[in-house]
Amino acid sequence: MQKPSLRAGLLVASAVAATVALPLLANAGPAPMPTFQAEKCYGVNAAGKNDCASTNSHSCAGEAKMAMDAKSWIYVPAGTCGKIQGGSTTAKM
Predict the structure, then answer these.
(1) Tell me: the pLDDT tens digits for 67-90?
(2) Which of 56, 82, 84, 89 has the fewest CB atoms lying closer than 10 Å?
(3) Interior CA angle at 28 toward 22 and 29, to 5°?
(4) Are 54 and 71 in contact (CB under 8 A)?
């Protein structure tokens, strides 16, 4: 069993590490542009698996609360969005 002072020190060190790491993790932005020729496809994302969203929806990548969010998009190879059921190259308001 650990001594109380060692346990308290570990707790403080963990709290400091979390405080430093949180802003780095919370800096959500759009997903980087893929290496293939791509287009944005709205309405076909899985919950939490979007690349970004249109304005007034949420901050960006990975923040979609529901699947097939009409305002959230993912990158797909150019020319394939129209072939996906529910996919649109423009946001549905």
Answers:
(1) 888 888 889 999 999 999 999 999
(2) 56
(3) 155
(4) yes
Which tokens in the block code for residue 31? 């997903």
- What is the spatial distance between Cα 5 and Cα 33, in angstroms, rounded to a whole number? 49
Give the DSSP letter string of the chain.
---HHHHHHHHHHHHHHHHHHHHHHH---PPPPPSS-EEEEET-PPTT--SEE-TTT-SSTT--SSTT-TTEEEEEETT-GGGSTT-BSS---
60 near 52, Cβ under 8 Å?
yes
> Of the ranges 21-25, 51-55, 60-64, which one carries the lowest mean pLDDT score?
21-25
Cα torsion through 86, 89, 54, 73, rounded to 10 = 60
